[in-house]
């Protein structure tokens, strides 16, 4: 066991915090910059949760050896191309990627795209080439932070803590905690962000705020400005639900100030999520936010592995399947690692039906909703019982995770399972665990420098507000403080504005063209009158969501849907 007592929070979160393990107690690491000694409720729940101790096969407890024998026998029986490897983001340590390299070599079908940030990432890549955030110090230099489609104080609470005394502008249909703490809240209609970005661009031009130096350097801004001018201002106002008065206020607040823009998932949960994001990034460029001499940059969920060389070879000869469109019923064997598709993947009904008709193996740390449909459950050991490194998609600081406890005898780490399978199938090419860990611990990638910027010059978006019937609502699904996706304190309520006429405790059926489900209502003025809100992890939310991919990134689009409500 390592003498070093640092551990990293494994959870899927911008902050990638580090803690220390002392005398059996865990405390936030004061020396790790964004952590600053603080631990959040989710990390505490993660430590305290009930971990699986024994494998389960057909609802009977078996030994780890027996479980591995079942796994190997199954892998030898099926044709590799009739098997699917499906990995979630329950633990974001770099060593979690090891198992995919086995299944790639074995010949399973792998997934592509994302249930998370795929659309936005694709959009930013198109404008700038890479999805990389500026150094965190730039955020600290900002006078004003524009929070656009991100629940900043909740989903990256440690990053927020560093800048909480600044002036904020929030652009979000929901009155989130950060919106309440903002100088200005633009409660726009969902999926009208690109129109707002174009409107803001026109105002920026009128107020002479264009960063001519940046725009000249990258030459492609003229077409973008033409695009921005292509609609009458008043029709923008009606579509977005944001008043011109508020737009003026926006520019008053940022005038002569250093500005940073913090983007989140909210802008891109739609079919055209990539181009919507690209439009916002182009507005940011027009204003000079990417120019480090003037402003403080634009943040999103960055590629946390930018600059690192891939340590596991997961190249495959097979066509990959979009993660948003996976039909589990098509495979004889499904291997699921660190995911809970029954709650988190789009269209729960279809997921459950699919899982029922294939042999499902689940590798995870506890019993989740997906385990109900698993034939074999293999317990992965907890993050305290394996060495790892956490890279962050929020900032540039990594966190180290040492093995501070011995694994329980019938559990296995993802890397050890990978090694076992490589050995059993006589595959080669898996690097040694220590070599991989040392690489990630020691290597410091070079900071990203801007080499190109391509403004968006054309965009076509199918407007939800044009499709929406009077009695329909926009469906919003976002993160909550005390649960991490489908883990910990789950909230299954449907949140509605009291002006809708529904009352607390009402039981309603929500329906969309993809499915329906029942919910208990909670009312709040924080939700716009034309929206409904379900938090991530809500067990019924994804009965309503589309199992199709977005326009260009093979990814899910949870909010490309309108819903009807009926009192039960
Ligand atoms: N406590 C906690 N923290 C988390 C997580 C968690 O489950 N719990 N999950 C982690 C994960 S996996 C991720 S990917 C990140 C995501 O973290 P965020 O990027 O903050 O993503 P969300 O909370 O999904 O959505 C952000 C905001 O977008 C708003 N929104 C919805 N639709 C629109 C729209 O059309 N336009 C605009 N402008 N805004 C819109 C929502 O109201 C919400 O406030 O958080 C991570 N951190
Ligand atoms: N309605 C709705 N759906 C959403 C979202 C939303 O906002 N609303 N958000 C989407 C987003 S952003 C994301 S990222 C996805 C997340 O979707 P998933 O990746 O499926 O994440 P979870 O549902 O949290 O399930 C992760 C599982 O991993 C397990 N796990 C934790 N640690 C380990 C470990 O060390 N090893 C192994 N093997 N397993 C471990 C946990 O116990 C948990 O059950 O959900 C998406 N789905
Ligand atoms: S803020 Fe995020 S990374 Fe930090 S301890 Fe909490 S869940 Fe983990
Ligand atoms: Mo995510």
Protein traits:
single chain, 568 residues, alpha/beta, 6-stranded mixed β-sheet, 19 helices, 18% strand, binds ligand MGD, binds iron/sulfur cluster, binds molybdenum atom
Q: Strand content of the residues, in percent?
A: 15-25%
Largest sheet: 6 strands, mixed
Q: Numbering strands along the chain, what is their spatial order in the largest sheet?
A: 5-4-16-15-14-6
Helical stretch count? 19
Shape: globular
Rg, alpha carbons:
24 Å
Please state the average pLDDT score: 97
| Structural class based on helices, strands and sheet pairing | alpha/beta
Low-confidence stretches: none
Q: How many strand units? A: 26
Q: Which small-molecule species are bound to the chains here? A: ligand MGD, iron/sulfur cluster, molybdenum atom
| Distance, first to last CA | 57 Å
Helix content: 25-40%
Fold and architecture overview:
With 568 residues, the protein is an alpha/beta fold. Helices cover 29% and strands 18% of the residues. It is built from 19 helices and 26 strands. The strands form seven sheets. It has a six-stranded mixed β-sheet with strand order 5-4-16-15-14-6, with helices on one face. Helix 14 (273-287) links the parallel strand 11 (259-263) and strand 12 (298-299). The longest helix is centred in the middle third of the chain and has 15 residues, at 273-287. The radius of gyration is 24 Å and the shape is globular. The termini are far apart. The model has no long low-confidence stretch (mean pLDDT 97). It binds ligand MGD (2 copies), iron/sulfur cluster and molybdenum atom (MO). One ligand MGD binds at residues 12-14, 42, 116-117, 148-151, 154-155, 171-174, 176, 190-191, 193, 264-267, 476, 478-481, 483-485, 536, 559.
